[in-house]
Amino acid sequence: MSPFTNSKSSKNPIGNLKGFTLLELLVVIAILGILLSIGFVFYQRALQNARDQTRLSDLSNVKIALEQYFADDNFVYPTSNAGRINCGGPDLDWGTSSLDCGGFIYMKVLPRDPSGSPEYCYVATGSPPNEFIIHAQMENSNNSNGGPITCSGPSYNYRVQSER
Fold first, then answer.
1. What is the pTM of this model?
2. What's the pLDDT score for residue 9?
3. Which residues lie closer than 8 Å to 88 by C-beta, 6 or more apart?
C-alpha cells in the first residue's frame, strides 16, 4: 500500500469529504439576511433623498420660469385654479403641459412630482396676482420648510414662493 493512499478513501470516496453543517449554513444565511435588510433601509433612504432633490430642482426651475413670465407680463403672475397654473387658457397640468403663456414657452413641460402623488400645488395671491407659492410634499422630514400646509386637498410640508 502506498503512503499517499488513504485506506478509507479507497473504500468510500465520499466518506472523507468534509462540508458545512446545517447549523453553519443557517448562521450564514441569517447574517446575510440581516445585512440585506440593513442595506435595503439605506437604499430606500437614498431613493427618498434623490426624489426630494428632484423636487427641489423642479421647484427652482418653475420659480425661474414664473419670474421670467412676471417680468414679461407687466409684473403679474399667472392665476391659479385648484393647484394648477392658468395663463388665461385651460389650466396647465403638472407633467404634461408646457408653461406656454401669451405665445412664449417658459418651460417645455411642467415637472411632475417624482413619486406622482401628490402633484405640486401652485397658488397665486393678490388681484392681479403679484405673489405665488408652489407647494410640494417632501419624503424626508429634514427637507421640509414648514407645514403641514393644505393646498387643494393634500397636505404639503415644503414651499417655494415668489421673490416679492
1. 0.78
2. 47
3. 78, 101, 102
